[in-house]
Design brief:
The protein has 257 residues and is of the alpha/beta class. The chain is 33% helix and 14% strand. Strand 1 and strand 2 form a beta hairpin. It is globular and about 50 Å long.
Length: 257
């Protein structure tokens, strides 16, 4: 019945993709059109078991993949097979235990995330969460609890919603996993991270998050829209580990390379 209703409405009021403005048609993932959905560059293995960065990022111009840092058997990698770790994580492990992102922050995925956050299109959280489920569901430990990374109160009031919380709700529903947004709070507002380098980002969010002791002994999975340097996720992980969380993972829609 829902399919017929959507088709009937489309005949009278053709729905358009909020990213490319094309009329929705075959392959649509409402409200994304099929072309934008298919145009998302997914992140697939091989990738770092710790930070989730795809190993091709470490490739240089040489043709022999065995000499590319970060590839299996290369000097920039640690371990072997599925447990492969990139050189940077081996040298200085992040505060979170693992991270996975569904796609590259580029093209239609970047545009969709920006429309969600700044274009006030909360309906986009649905297909973006579906992308996370498609690409990252296998990374979830059994019994893990999802926690969305909180926005500062003023920023959430200005935006009207927390995009990470919207995505987390859909992901939790898809996985049948518990969602505990109150396990993490952001009592201190911070400057926008967009124009800051990695060191400034870490300083900006230092001490900005407080975790609930309810997270003690739990496997926690943080949910956010974009992972850039990992500064925000890392600070959230520190707060959760400080109250006794057993492990802290990170699921994001997109990853900046």
């Amino acid at each position: 019945m829902r399919g017929w209703a959507v088709a009937a409405l489309d005949l009278v009021f053709p729905a358009c993709c909020p990213v490319c403005a094309a009329t929705l048609g075959a392959g649509r993932r409402d409200p994304l059109c099929g072309a934008c959905w298919d145009g998302i560059v997914r992140i697939d293995p091989p990738l770092c078991a710790r930070c989730g960065l795809p190993f091709f990022v470490f490739a240089d111009s040489r043709s022999d993949s065995d000499e590319r840092p970060g590839f299996p058997g290369a000097p920039g990698a640690s371990g072997s097979g599925a447990a492969q770790t990139c050189g940077p994580c081996a040298a200085a492990p992040p505060a979170f235990d693992w991270a996975r992102a569904a796609g590259l922050y580029a093209g239609p995925l970047r545009d969709a995330v920006q429309r969600l956050k700044f274009g006030r299109r909360p309906a986009l959280a649905r297909p973006l969460a579906a992308l996370v489920l498609e690409q990252c569901a296998a990374a979830m430990p059994a019994g893990a609890v999802l926690v969305s990374i909180p926005l500062a109160r003023e920023r959430e009031r200005e935006r009207g919603f927390n995009q990470a919380a919207l995505v987390a709700e859909h992901v939790a529903r898809g996985l049948g996993a518990p969602l505990s947004p109150r396990w993490l709070a952001r009592p201190r507002a911070t400057a926008p991270q967009t124009e800051l380098d990695a060191a400034a980002r870490r300083a900006n969010v230092r001490g900005a998050f407080v975790a609930s002791t309810a997270a003690a002994g739990a496997d926690v999975v943080l949910v956010d829209d974009v992972l850039t340097t990992g500064a925000t996720a890392g600070e959230c992980a520190r707060a959760l580990h400080a109250v006794g969380a057993r492990s802290v993972g990170v699921l994001t829609v997109a990853r900046v390379l």
